[in-house]
Amino acid sequence: MRYEVKALKDGDAVVALTLDAVDAQDARAQASQQGYAVLSVRALGGLHLSLGSRRAKFPLLLFSQELLALLNAGLSLMEALQTLAVKETRPDTRKVLEQVIAGLYEGRSLSAALERFPSAFPALYVATVRASERSSGLPEALSRYIDYQSQLDLVRKKLASASIYPVLLISVGLLVTLFLMVYVVPKFSKIYQDVGTNLPFMSRLLIKWGNLLETNGAFLAIAFAGIVAAGIYWLRHPATRKWIASMLWLIPQLGERMKIYQLARFYRTLGMLLRAGIPIVTAMEMAAGLLPPVLQAPLGGAALSIKEGRSISHAMEANELTTPVALRMLLVGERTGKMGEMMDRIATFYDNEMARWVEWFTRLFEPLLMIIIGLIIGLIVILLYMPIFDLAGSIQ
């Protein structure tokens, strides 16, 4: 992707540079390496780029798996990275790999070369690689991260698969309801309109709804499309999603399940970092970004308690970052000295608990959803035919 960089060099006038970079930070770094003092960075391409397809996300898990396979095959780190860069077909990904290789040629460590691209390599990944450099265990670190990310992806896939059928039911129910209200009801209203004025209350409502659609159909369609577009735009804002998440946390049962899901991610991340040799407080600070705002304050309190000399189990319990079962597992980890492995077991316990709850919820929610949709559609159909029954009774 091309960026326009406005910068100063040796106190001269402002110059505009056009650079090919992975992201804005990469463009800034390239200009700084050339001796420029960067003032601003802007992506070139205009509005259509922002409305078009997004830049492909760096395939970190696939990169780690391929790099591990090449290292286990006996290739050196430089040879493995060059092999991955040569076979890569996506320009953005190849650009990142070439920049990493250039950093290694400049004498940087692998972690320092990766750290220049935070959009591709998150801080957790860089920290894991940096810890492995002290023990020359890069393959082990890659394998640890692959297991960690695979477990996180597995949980997300379970949640996504459990939501497919309810979403499908809701979509079909809305489409059927919309068809009835937009097409069928106006047709019936024209039939009732010719009968006369002595109609039941529901018949008069049907006639009014049909007349409204017939006279203002175009305006209502535009207004509906505008409302949908505004809703989508509103939901895309991070502040909106944060507000919705905070509201969901207030629902007792759902909020508790959301907490369990977040704690599972948190403990799995801590376990990976601790097994990589990173101190517990540093690991907690690095994992803080994974937690929602409602849990970040308790995490800060737990880190402070550990700095003051309290045990991990006491700090977690005092700040409500654990459950009774997880607390006992933390105590066992403190006695055995295998806190990293115990964190992984806690995360697995939480994942299994979430899986059981999701299965129970879907088994209960899906029939209830079908009943609700059936009642709504049935009510519309009954209201459509009720005037006919009334008219038939009056004729008799």
Describe the structure.
The chain has helices spanning 24-33, 47-51, 60-72, 77-87, 91-105, 110-115, 123-135, 138-193, 201-235, 238-249, 252-275, 280-287, 293-307, 312-318, 324-336, 339-395, and strands spanning 2-8, 15-20, 37-43. By secondary structure, the chain is mainly α. The chain has three domains: 2-51, Roll (Ubiquitin-like (UB roll)); 60-149, Receptor-associated Protein (Up-down Bundle); 164-396, Receptor-associated Protein. A hairpin with a 6-residue loop joins β1 and β2 (15-20). α3 runs antiparallel to α8 (138-193).
**Individual helix count:** 16
Overall number of domains: 3
The gross shape turns out to be extended
Strand segment count: 3
Architecture per CATH nomenclature, i.e. the level-2 architecture of the largest domain: Up-down Bundle
Average of per-residue pLDDT values: 80
The separation of the N and C termini measures: 78 Å
The level-1 CATH class of the largest domain:
Mainly Alpha
Q: For this structure, what is the CATH homologous superfamily of the largest domain?
A: Type II secretion system (T2SS), domain F
Determine the structural class based on helices, strands and strand pairing. mainly alpha
What percentage of the residues does DSSP assign to strands (E)?
5-15%
CATH T-level topology of the largest domain? Receptor-associated Protein
Work out the helicity level: over 70%
